[in-house]
Amino acid sequence: MLKALWWTSTVLYMAIIYYFSSMSSLKSPVSFPHADKVAHAIEYGILSILLYFALRSTSRFSPRLVFFIAFSITLLFGFSDEVHQFFVAGRNCSGGDLVADGLGGYLFLVVIRYFHEKSEKPT
Question: Which of 14, 43, 59, 70 gives the lowest tally of CB atoms within 10 Å of its CB?
């Protein structure tokens, strides 16, 4: 049951990202320098965590390999999202957004893996 929930949440979240990426004009509710990069980092950080737990719940891979796979899928999805936005009127394809996607995914994974492994170790 929990495995299905992790994967359903992950796929649904990816669909939501795709949906919002398909909008020709999307205004940010906050405005400060590089707010869009922060939003990308958080958005893809959440995706990487969902992928991490979905993979952990259904595979026997080591935590290190799960980390790598979750990060790789996050980065590939970010790349595909940027390519997708190239074809959406009013949107653009940005290498800076892809860097923010990858950085957010990586940082969130580092934090979640640290706390998840710490909670699994016997005291």
Answer: 59
